[in-house]
Amino acid sequence: MHVNNTAEEKEIVTQQKSKLGVRLFFIYLICYAGFVFLGVFKYELLASTVFWGLNLALTYGIGLIIFAVILGIVYNYYCTKYEDQAEKTENLTEGENK
Amino acid sequence: MIYDISFTALAFFFVFVGLVLGLSFYFGRKKSSSSSYYAAGGQIHWAVNGIAFAGDYLSAASFLGICGMIAIAGFDGFLYAIGFLAGWIVALFLIAEPFKRLGKYTFTDALNAKFNSRAITLTASISTLIISIFYLIPQMVGAGDLVMPLLGLPHWAGVILVGAIVIAIVASAGMASTTYVQFLKGGLLIVLSTVLTVYILKNGLSTPPNFNGNTYHKFLELSPKVENDKIVSAQDWSVIAQQQVGNKTFVKLEQNGVERWFEWARGEDNLLKETLTITQRADGTVLYNGEPKDNRKFYQVGHLSKIIVNGQELSQTGPLGPFEFLSTIKDSEIVRFLQVKLTDGDEQVSVYYPESTPGSKFMLPGLKYKIGSDANLWSKMDFVSLMLALFLGTAALPHILIRYYTVKTPRDARKSTILAIAAIGGFYILTLFIGLGAGVNGVMDVESSNMAAPLLARAFGAALFSIISAVAFATVLGTVAGLIVASSGAIAHDFIDVYLKKNLDDDKKVKVGKIAAVVVGVFAILLGMAFQGINVSFLVGWAFAIAASANLPAILFLLFWKKTSSSGIAASIVVGIISSLAIILTSPTMWDKYGLGAENALHQLENPALISFPLAVITVYLFSTLYPKKANI
Lengths: 98, 633
Description:
The complex is a heterodimer.
Chain A: H1 11-41, H2 43-46, H3 56-97
Chain B: H1 7-30, H2 34-39, H3 46-57, H4 60-73, H5 75-102, H6 107-112, H7 118-151, H8 155-172, H9 175-203, E1 221-222, E2 224-227, E3 230-234, E4 238-245, E5 248-255, E6 258-265, E7 271-274, E8 276-280, E9 286-288, E10 301-309, E11 312-314, H10 322-331, E12 333-344, E13 347-358, H11 359-362, H12 377-393, H13 398-401, H14 410-440, E14 441-444, H15 452-458, H16 462-499, H17 506-530, H18 536-550, H19 552-560, H20 566-585, H21 588-594, H22 609-626
Antiparallel strand pairs in B: 1-7, 2-3, 4-5, 5-6, 6-7, 8-9, 8-13, 10-11, 10-12, 10-14, 12-13
Keywords (chain A): Membrane, Transmembrane, Transmembrane helix
Transmembrane segments (chain A): 20-41, 53-78
InterPro entries (chain A): DUF485
């Protein structure tokens, strides 16, 4: 296992991860705010039946929970990729220096 | 409610609690330094930490509160599940890794990593303390509710019991123990909830509830004779009194020396419907449905009055799939028991009357947080405010953040968090089934919604009930322990060591932490007694609102705005705490607690975040602009 020490983490990886985090956050924020918006302004819509006899409120609510998990997995996948890439380039440069 | 003591339940309970205590003392012997007391020495595996995260987070609010609120208010309880989980997105995407890079032990350390400002140390430790205390209240209330059916003890005794056990755990061991306790409990909670959900689906729906062979009380319906808007007779009951409360009419009838209250449903069917009552008499005695407690005439409630599947009315569905279960309840009709209080002569009567609610309404938000046709501006603001607090509060809870430090690397912290999100998300979907299952299967205790899940388990038999109660109790224990560690850290480390510059050595630091833990624990016990009977999710909503207002603007600006200054952070924490506390303390629920009547409150907003969060954001911006940080920092 590679050591992924905080002090050694490259600035660029930190930036990449932070940018990704902010983007995914806004994607989720929009979906979440959409639910609140429907509740306040388009309440009747929440009652309409969508899938498997469930209404929009339930589908949206359960959807938000599942979506959070999916975004989490996506985030982890890309962060790990950024970290591995940076490590690879670092190892290459070290090799060349020798 | 009236509870019997179950000895099987008791045995399981003590074995489990003993196990938890044993574990914590075992790990307690191995630790010694202050770093292991506060953050388990940074040596915990990420998967263990992830489930422990979930264990931390799935507090009494989740297991007891959400299930309970879903059982009595339908979808509105699920709002908490949605918001509680969404909060993790903020924690994971914006805060987890930067914090791990910044901090050491506590939330205050992380906020202060760049500034070393005494003002931040002071304000952040105060906010940690206040949030922890607000989070402790519902845990204690839940603990009291739990031991009532389990041990047959009164509410206050349960609160003291939990307080004492937790103080013992924390004062002897600290964080290392609580991580493993949380892991164990988080895992068990998810497994048991799955078992319970499978049972519920297998059992299907029936009217009257025939849940695992348990009989349901048949509520009487009498045809009255009416003259001049007064009930003059009701079958073989004699009429004693009639009273109007709001738009409901209640009638007191008597038969064989027993007095009962009925609700007069004036609609088409024009019936008198049996209610549940608790009567407080002037001489101090209490009657349940007009009879002494030992007569056992106070029933568990909650049922479907009509089951509709594909447009056909059925009396029993048989096993259902998860979607079928939800859609059947949506198409059916549910009977909830709502409370009113009335005075009859020198008697104080709490009446719980049946109210038929269409399933289509029950499965929509709006029964507690009014946002539909019966909404007003306050109620809509309240809904938005709640959703905002839940979304922004999670990341700012001090006892959640502390776990970021218990794994070695940011990579591990991230993996822990994602595992936690998946575990918690799965659990929250299960709460929907457990809550609805409790609401329609005749197991609810009208006095406290918090017991929905354990009482549902009890209908399956003593074993499941005792295990679930023990896990729920451990849930409370673990969460309370985590909170007390966080608040003792705020007092001992941030306030005494850093702010007062006492430069304590390692031994002394641990000792001061333990003393602080005892003090906070005792305080929490007192508050737990004061807030008996309120839904614990609702109470937790306040802790989230304070956290979102006091801590989150400071954290976000610190991480994402380079010009943020120490005075900006300190001022925003102060404004966040004061504004959210002020709104909570003047809210309708508190007004009711003060005995002034909810309707007379200064405003009708139950959740403060909609006002206090923007105020704190403006404050951090203004103060950072007016008092910028010094060039050398």
